[in-house]
Amino acid sequence: MAVNLPRLLLVSDRQRERRGALRTSIRAGAPFVQIREKDLGSAAITERLAALACTRQGDARTGPLVCVNGQPELARRLGIGLHLPADHPPADRQGIVLLGRSVHDTDEIMRAQDERVDYLIVGTLFASASKPGRAPLGLAAFERLVRAAEPLPVFGIGGIGPDQVAAVRDAGAHGVAVCGAILEAADPSAATRLFLEELSR
User: Is the pTM of this model over 0.90?
Assistant: First the structure.
């Protein structure tokens, strides 16, 4: 993989986002953004990316590293990354600059490894408002999945706040994927900086 992955991955959700929080977080230095807006079509997502200055033109990328959730053709057309949910069919890797996959168990990890993905998101780690019906993995089970995924970099997701970053990293995670802890924060800029500070330790 040619891309040096940042350790903070911000996952968008405009239904939960305080007004302007995604843009604010990007301005505060959020280095890696996943656009996860499953109800939006490619045109609306393209407009959203342009409004956030998350675009790629030729080899001159501006803004953070970006991936889009579940839309392979859009990722190819825009020259951005692609992230696939656990239940999404495999995507042709041709033309995909960065490929990630969400997984929940060792079987899904093995399938993702066969797809030659660049990174994994593993969760739900702790109780999360965005996944109310999903039992949390906990750190011990998460650590086992991280080991099963080696050498792929793993982002932990689900109910992670700045205070949990050290424990998630100690369990072997490359980084953390965050939604509500930043997008619902009273001060998204401060929340972003705090995550970045904890991840730099």
Answer: yes
